[in-house]
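Internal tracking record. Fields below are filled automatically when a chain is submitted to the structure queue. Please do not edit lines marked as system-generated. If the sequence contains nonstandard residues, flag them in the REMARKS field before resubmitting.
Queue: standard
Priority: normal
Entity type: single polypeptide chain
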Amino acid sequence: MDAMKRSLYTLFVIACLCLLLSAKPVITSARSDSHKESGGETLVMPKQCHPGKTSTVAMGWRWQPHAHVRVYYLKNSFSAVEEGALTRAVNNWNNALREIDSGISFTIGGERESVSEENASVTVLRAVPKGKDRIGQIKLYSMSNGTASALLIISPAVTDLDALTSLMSHEIGHTLGLADCYECKRGTTTMAAFRSDNKGNDVFEPSECDRYVVASGYASEVREQAGVITVGRK
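SYSTEM-GENERATED OUTPUT FOLLOWS
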């Protein structure tokens, strides 16, 4: 009987080991498209994402990992209703960033008298962007002391509230490492081109593809120097 019990126990252990060895990791969330394994984080591109068509690609500049970014509106640049439209884009990005567990978050700091130079800050203001047919421009700064900040310029021609939300979502995407995708189909990525000054790109929050590219960028933690990015119509 003892020999039989030992044989049955041995067979049971072998069966359990076979099940463990044959098991495969399962990705349960299409939103974040991430699966944490012992070796790190594996990111899988959603099937609908095609770079240059429905998805943008990554650029080097992005906030440092786990940054808490404050967004300021330069005094007398926007009405209360316009600030609400811009804040809507900030909130949409915050929701997406929580879903992909990025560690990045944005907080509205309200109005201020001058452009902020503090670390992890964005100052949004009304002015005429440089370049023909430009409706938005963002200047990204990385200083030698580790300070990073951004200046976001929105054309006075953009007055429609939905267009403001769309443009703000686009510009925040740049600060998170997303490049323009003017060849992408409108409605697929927040980084697509605008139709006109007050007709956005039909996207008011980051798409699944945008989330994937942001998550991939922070997984690699690539950092670059300062740059200037303009947004135009097409």
